[in-house]
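Progress report, Aim 2. The chain analyzed during this reporting quarter is listed below.
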Amino acid sequence: MGSPELMRVFIEATAIGDALGATTEFLSFADAAEGVVRGREQGYPWRPIGGGWLNLKAGECTDDTAMSVLLADALDDMVTLDVRRLASLFAQWVKTGPPDVGGTIRAVVAAQGFTTDPLAVSAAYFRRYPDRCGNGALMRNAVCAAAAPDLAHAFRWSLLQGAVTHYHPLWVLCCAMQIWLMWETFEERWPFGWHDDWVEAWHAAWTSWVSNEADEDVKAWLAEVQKDDSLNNAMRAVCDAEFGADEFDPFSIDLGPIQGWALVGLQIAVWAMQWCQRSASQYPFAVPAGLTVCADVFAQRRHRVVGWLPLLGHDADTYGAIAGPMIACGMGKPFGKQFLNHVQVPSLGTLVGADEAFRD
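Predicted structure tokens for the chain:
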């Protein structure tokens, strides 16, 4: 798209989902439902009320939104993505002491040589901890779709921004699937109805692109993850995952500490993206007994599907941050003022001083 306006739309959508989910982050399903009930008089779960384990003010966002803004800063010319500049932005931001930074991001950014050769540092972390697969790259990924002039650029920037801190191929593939789904809507194709098998269509598009990509950093990443079965295993996990709107039920799975956080986060976002267009007379599942008090929340559609995500608890801020831009794509328009008026969305260039952001 190459659109700064769309970048802003996606950052706002990320911030909305992030701020709403932050209130119930790390809570169980039952405790999240109680939190939603307590906040109903204040407009929750469609109006952020703050609190949560970070004790946020109403409308404040977490690292999910902050890192989206930093990625947008690095893509401000919408021509190229300099991974060293992005790494420097991340490092400077971490030095400001944000209250919430993911474990993988904190470890990789703190490693010696990160701002000089971030991809090498991230690759070393991946090899040391091959089973760690959080969702820190996916939560900030959507702006790549808005900044890129075509799908090839979007795939490239998505891979590179992810690999700067999250080298694992499962991270990269989840980011690529999000990009492709959003790009399909740009092309006025609803991917879940346009393709007989949309997962296979994504797989074919990404595989064709990466096999012919000329970028040296992308080729180096591909060579590294093909040294063993890392890429094949990750691709198998993504292609075998359940993405059906009727079949996938996030309340039926354990959302506690798991290796595939990135994939679960993507499944939840795809689920929300599909349901935003569905009839309000349908429910996405048989509402669990502990959530019947919030059953009316699941009757909401369009942009208000973002209010389902706080009921998940666990990593709810990140589920919201990933799903927010995908819901906006699904609806074909931004979130309205009834959401935006209550969210504190950082402006580009405000999280790190311009004079500190990048030194060659």
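Residues 354-360 have pLDDT under 50 and may be disordered. The radius of gyration is 19 Å. These observations will guide the mutagenesis work planned for the next reporting period.
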